[in-house]
Write a structure and sequence with these properties.
This protein is of the alpha/beta class. The protein has four domains: about 55 residues, no CATH class; about 160 residues, Rossmann fold (3-Layer(aba) Sandwich), CATH 3.40.50.740; about 220 residues, Dimethylsulfoxide Reductase, domain 2 (3-Layer(aba) Sandwich), CATH 3.40.228; about 130 residues, Beta Barrel (Barwin-like endoglucanases), CATH 2.40.40.20. It contains 25 helices and 30 strands. The strands form nine sheets. It has a seven-stranded mixed sheet, with helices on one face. A six-stranded mixed sheet has the order 26-28-27-30-25-29. Helix 10 crosses helix 11. Bound molecules: ligand MGD (2 copies), iron/sulfur cluster and molybdenum atom. One ligand MGD binds next to helix 5 and helix 12.
Amino acid sequence: MSVTDARPANRTVFRTCPLCEASCGLEITLKRTAAGPEEVIRIRGDREDVFSQGYICPKGSTLKQLHEDPDRVRTPLIKRDGVFVAVTWTEAFEEVERLLLPILERDGRDACAVYVGNPNAHNLAGMLYNKAVLRALGSTNIFSASTVDQRPKEISSALMFGGVLNVPVPDVDRTDHLLMLGANPYASNGSLATAPDWPGRIERLTGRGGKLVVVDPRRSRTAEAASEWVAIRPGADGYLLMAMVQVLFAEGLVDLGPLGELVTGLDEVEALSAPFTPEVVADVTGLEAHTIRRMARELAAAPTACVYGRIGTTTVEFGTLTSWLVDVLNVLTGNLDRPGGAMFTTAAAGASNTRGKRRFGREIRLHRRTSRVRGLPETMGELPAVALAEEIDTPGPGQVRALLTVAGNPVLSTPNAARLDAALGGLEAMVSVDIYVNETTRHADVILPSPSALQKGHYDIALLQLALRDTANYSEPVLPLEDGELSEWEVLARLALVLQGAGPEADPAIVDDLMIGSMVQGSVADETSAIFGREPEEILEELAPRSGPERIVDFLLRTGPYGEGFGADPDGVSLDVLLAHPHGIDYGALKARLPDVLRTPDGMIALAPAMLAADVARLQEGLTRRRDHRFVLVGRRNLRSNNSWMHNVKVLVKGKSQCTMHLHPDDAVTLGLADGEWARVRSRVGEVTVVVEVTDAIRPGVVSIPHGWGHDMEGVQLGVAREHSGVNSNLLSDETLFDPISGNAVLNGIPVEVVAARGG
Ligand SMILES: Nc1nc2c(c(=O)[nH]1)N[C@H]1C(S)=C(S)[C@@H](COP(=O)(O)OP(=O)(O)OC[C@H]3O[C@@H](n4cnc5c(=O)[nH]c(N)nc54)[C@H](O)[C@@H]3O)O[C@H]1N2
Ligand SMILES: Nc1nc2c(c(=O)[nH]1)N[C@H]1C(S)=C(S)[C@@H](COP(=O)(O)OP(=O)(O)OC[C@H]3O[C@@H](n4cnc5c(=O)[nH]c(N)nc54)[C@H](O)[C@@H]3O)O[C@H]1N2
Ligand code: SF4
Ligand SMILES: [Mo]
């Protein structure tokens, strides 16, 4: 540092946290160091953030630890004789080419599968450039974390409202009554309903006399804070909701209000629900008929109400039906699209429901093809994650021989983990874009690292489409790339170029220019766009000299609903405007958007989509199925954890183990197990030995183990996580259990046997 250097010693910047869906604003203080880049000295909540107003959870401040983690991969790695060695980017891409192209040539494009993981949804590079990689590869064997997560909700939303992200979100801030199923935002900070500070929002809801009903086999922290906890049997929410629908019809409580004119299929829903009286579902749900009846009446009677379901409603055998019924109830009670009900966000950038023709769209086609081995259905261009292992380990024409993972850890996050782990070991080639050598990427031949979150620009293109307020916020990179580091979008763009045969040194700008070029072309040709009929060159000139994700974000903002429209509305938003608003811009509470938000073929809300109506027969059959297993397994989340990949942060994992099995005291007595002792848990596919936590905060007959643990595998390079290994709950989840509409895995409600494991 020279004496003439006038930069202040400390500097404060603002950045949205990318770790979970809450999207909190962070205030980050940096200190200059004598040599090298600045150092983060403090991260706290940004009190001026328009959305989070200072809220932060214990993970938010760990962006520093993640950045500084010595185990984080910083240079490309190639496996030589079983050991990872650091190489240059050119060498790494040469290796990708050398490994993958001959396989693609020999066996066809489908021989290489892809698994796209969750952090992509929180990441501009993944959101925007994965498409290019998938297109360049041209494989139909595409898998993602979506089919161990929210695919059922995407499908029900697409069928009912015409868009995968046309997902109504609960207007928590204005509602009088929130019925929440299978979600624990006190731990997860919310999902498919973006909002910082769920605890505060819920406390304000109950504080103003509103009611929160939480349906969960566990008395979660959210259930503790609720007005009522309804301890349902795992997997049975579809029955509960269908019975509530039945009650609404039977008791004349259906009142669509103005929605009446926008809905088809009302009579059909009534007929479908008729057999599911509260008495009929009492057994399977484990709930009293009068409770169900009361829940329906209270929902109908509330001045405003919304129904919201999450993981416990999607990762179950009736996931799509349950997701659908959530919104059926929102419609039947007249609460869809009104303040305090379930509403549609108006996102500033990237939302399909703010583009193109209003109200009308194309038919959503599902199940266009099936997987090779088990014939599982395609949805949204992907195959179910429950089919990944068998596509790799089952010989025959079309067998998957190579795998690309992008920010995914399927060995810890997908069913029958042991089978997948073994299958990955048998691949001819594997390439991972990732930041760690973990349970999955240890199998890779090449690891292409992404820089840390602090080194990336950020805009929540996906999550802000599901926000509880209309907001926009862009964050610049906080720290620069270091020597030899490549931004993640360039990694993905170069990977795409290698896969399409352009070679390891092709310029990522080629991909980038093509991407923006086609977006601009599409927009000027769209008569509903603010730039319809303009010259593409002129638009591209206005976007210059930006490149990469920032140029695309600028374009999406400027052509979005609040956009400046390349001159059409000088007061509108652009990236420059957001740069001048480091705490974000608030466009206010959610607004009514029907019917324009729809993109269905007939411009109507489909209350009884044929595919879902047909699946009700399966719900009915399920009523008579024997459920005589002694225990069923569910998951849970902990505020200090984030899926599988943040357990290398000491401050988050220190103290009492998070990876315990919750067991009801009565069950503990029968099993002869005490708190802190070890239990052996066995399912059809596997077995784990896990430490028991006896708690009455769970239904008898249900046990709960969180996912994302089990770091003690050979070759994992996570020093801290290894010491807090825990067990992999997905050794127990069964790849033969899935929702046939969505192909989504069943991760909750898995039959297991539990016995005491003396000796630990
Ligand atoms: N701290 C933290 N935050 C996270 C994550 C994390 O791992 N840690 N992960 C992020 C991701 S990827 C997601 S998708 C979201 C998920 O967000 P949430 O859905 O809120 O996730 P969970 O906290 O797992 O809450 C699910 C609840 O469903 C309950 N449940 C299980 N089975 C059933 C059932 O059959 N019926 C009902 N009604 N309830 C059931 C469980 O007991 C649990 O309390 O969280 C995100 N945020
Ligand atoms: N039993 C059970 N299983 C579950 C669930 C459950 O509730 N119960 N929940 C499911 C859900 S909701 C989800 S979303 C999935 C998650 O499943 P996955 O997406 O497969 O798993 P993650 O744990 O999110 O792993 C993320 C990976 O991305 C890497 N990574 C982190 N940040 C970056 C980055 O910026 N760039 C790159 N390139 N890599 C990065 C991490 O090192 C890690 O390898 O798990 C699912 N599995
Ligand atoms: S809740 Fe925590 S992890 Fe999620 S965005 Fe906010 S600070 Fe980050
Ligand atoms: Mo997720």
